[in-house]
Amino acid sequence: MVSSGLVLGIGGLVGIVAGPLVGSISDRSRSTRGRRRPWALVGVWVAAIFLVLTGLSEGPWLVGASWVGVSVGISVASAAFTALIADQLPSSQRGAASSAVGSSQAAGIVLGVGLVVLLGLGVFSGYLLLAAIIAVVGTLSALLLPDPPATASDLPPRSVTRPRLGSLRDRDFAWMLGGRLVANVGNALGTALFLFFLLHGLGQPTAEAQDNLLLLIVVYTVFVVIASVVTGILSDRTGKRRGLTVAATFVQAASGVAIVIVPTFEMTMVAAALMGLGYGSFSTVGLAFATDLLPDEQDHGRDLGIVNVTAALGQLIGPVLGAAFVALVGGFWLVFLMAAVLSVIGGLMTALARQPAPVPAPH
């Protein structure tokens, strides 16, 4: 268990590095096939191939090593696809595009697990099916989405040396990024330990806890999809992305408070719905808000790769903090309380980033 967790953690860290790195490379790509499309295809197929290898692997180290490849592939593809939003769309359409990204990720979890369960597939067959879905859908998306070759104005001059993380010096972008990271840690605290809370916090038998966990995941995911679609479109129509993003963190915080006050399974179901509403809105509108705050058009890929890192880093930090909080007080109330506190802090940090004026389409 320890070795598996260690390798999976390494895989997450490698993915965190890969996203901004490939985003930066794609920013400077002079390929006639587009800047983002080649990297999107590479990421999709790397993830698909390593998913198959994960299904074939035995033992924690081989599984973990294969999962490193999956993490890298997903990070590379995410950086490329996300950059297309900033490259091709005006501010008035980025909320809807971000909702497509957020809702498809959430729906993909339920669809993948549902297909595996309904078809009664084994481990390898399940991974093979998931890899096939990723390869087909990802390839079609990369080929069909517009990605014209970069013009001279899109690329930085070769003779100019640019700061590697210059975007972090931008006040508004830095506050948004910090708030996004803290709120993502709050989300991970509120969701990562659900199974252990059912087992040890509510005292449910193992089989019942596993069934209830699946139910919680479905409820959470359904509300993520609903919130992503509704708030993404709403943010396009109103232009008030900062306000919607901050409000979403308070809805997410309400989830943790609910469980602290009434620690029952029924309230946990309500909390899962609230967490889905809050996080679905936060991840979607927050991504659109991030694209509005990008400091430099010539570094879209790199900077959005950094934005994507906040979600991955939050998922790595959250479970570790959660385990520490459980050990500290011998229960789960502090985990959910801190999930609420960090969600609010993330929202307040986001509020310090100023809402930019709408800008026309870059192309």
Distance from N terminus to C terminus (CA atoms, Å) equals 50 Å
Question: What is the CATH architecture annotation?
Answer: Up-down Bundle
Helical proportion, percent range:
over 70%
The level-1 CATH class: Mainly Alpha
Largest sheet geometry: none
Overall tally of structural domains: 1
Radius of gyration: 20 Å
Number of strands: 0
Note the run of SSEs as H and E.
HHHHHHHHHHHH
Query: What would the principal axes of the Cα set say about the shape?
Result: globular
CATH superfamily: MFS general substrate transporter like domains
What is the residue-mean pLDDT, rounded to a whole number? 83
- Strand fraction equals under 5%
The residue ranges in which pLDDT falls below 50 over 5 or more consecutive positions are none
Write the CATH fold name. Answer: Growth Hormone, Chain: A
Number of helices: 12
- Helix- and strand-based class? mainly alpha
How would you characterize the overall build of this protein?
Helix 7 (194-201) crosses helix 8. Helices cover 78% and strands 0% of the residues. The N and C termini lie far apart (50 Å). It has 363 residues and is mainly alpha-helical. It has twelve helices and no strands. The chain has one domain (2-149, 167-351): Growth Hormone, Chain: A (Up-down Bundle), CATH 1.20.1250. The radius of gyration is 20 Å and the shape is globular. The longest helix is centred in the middle third of the chain and has 33 residues, at 206-238. The mean pLDDT is 83. It has helices spanning 2-27, 37-56, 60-88, 94-119, 123-144, 171-191, 194-201, 206-238, 241-261, 265-292, 300-329, 333-351.
